[in-house]
Structure formats: C-alpha cells, structure tokens
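Exercise 7. Given the components listed, write out the predicted structure of the assembled complex. Treat all entries as one system.
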Amino acid sequence: MRIAVISDIHGNLQALTKSLSIIRNLRVDKIYCLGDIVGYGANPNECVELVRQYADHTVLGNHDHAVLFPDYARYLPSDGKTVALWTAKILSSENREYLMNLKYRVETDLCTLVHASPDKPEHWNYINSLEEAGNQFEHFDKTICFAGHTHIPFICRDDLQSFKFDKEGRYLINPGSIGQPRDGRSQLSFGFLDTDAREYKNFRFSYDIDGAAEAIRKSKLPKALGKRLYNGY
Ligand code: ZN
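Answer.
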C-alpha cells in the first residue's frame, strides 16, 4: 500500500493544493492527515473541504481544537489565537461538524496516528528531542507512529530523509508541515510510505508562497504570518 502522510496544513490552500497534485502523481492508496488543518492561514474552509474529500484518516490538532473551543485559544501564541478566533467565526457548519468528529488518535493496521504525541495526545506535548522521542515508544504498539505538531520533519533513526524499515524495527516519524514549515526551509513537507517496499520518504516541494502570504494580507490577519512562510520558521 502507498500512503501519503500530511500534517499541519494551517489553512494554507496554496501549499495544500500543490501537495495534493504531487500526491496524485504518486498514485497513493491512502492519505493520512495528522491535524491542524486550520489556524495561521487564510483559507480554513477550503482546506477542511479538501481534507474531507481526500483524507482517509484524520486526527484532531490543537488549532482545530481551539477553533471548536475558543476558550482554549488563550494557550496558543498570540498570532495563533487571533487566527483561531477569526477562523471560528468564518468556519462553515459542515466543516465545524467534521472537526468536531475527529479523534485524538487513530490506529490503522501498521500505524498509530496522533497530532502531538502518543502518550497523551490530548495534552499537545511537543516531541523536540531524541530523549522525548525515545520515551514515546512504550505508548504505541504499531510499527510506525506518525506525529506532527512541531512542524519539523523527524525520523527516529539516523537518516533523516528516507529508510527501509525491517520487520522488527519500530519508528516514530514526523512528516513535517504542509502549510507552515519551521525547520528553516520554506518548502512544504509531507511523508510517503510504501508498505510493500517497506520504505519511507520525506518529500519537500516549493509552492506559491506569494499567493499564501497575499491571502493572509487580504484577510487582514497578522502580516508576520505571511512573512514567516518565506523563512520557514
Ligand atoms: Zn501546527
């Protein structure tokens, strides 16, 4: 089976449509989405609609949660809070209902999917170090746990770009962020898993950042949110 894993889209329609066009060419069987479909970017409704249409499994992210429960928005960074409250106002009722039905954790045959971390996915903890990653392995049984949230692609193995996985090994993987990469590179990031070849790859592609930044400006959202897309932080 060929699976694309996308995460942290954050209302960035330009990055999401580019990703989906590449994913179509990869002839995938499934698309998994690790949440944070909304927040920061200017096109939350369009992004939720595309995820509803194309993703086979999706989990809830902390920004999705903040849009549903605006009281939680105070725990977000100031720009994140501003956009969460704005998104809550413009989100369609169908999209709200879709987010409302998302779970913190989904299990497939081979994979555990969470937004933040498998130990307590509803606490939105960050996995920022090898030590923190190592502590997570006792909290999932599957071969691979996919987690997003930090926006930084990460494989708990020495090669950060690709690997062939053996039957005994278990892996913790962050596919990076579609809509707001934060590892100093502006290219969108997603994961591709081929379970027959037992191979995983992290893909990076440039996209229309000008369009995404312009949409943020036009919607009168904080300008810094457009600027950071160029710098990848
Ligand atoms: Zn995020």
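Discussion: The chain has a mean pLDDT of 95. The chain has eight helices and eleven strands.
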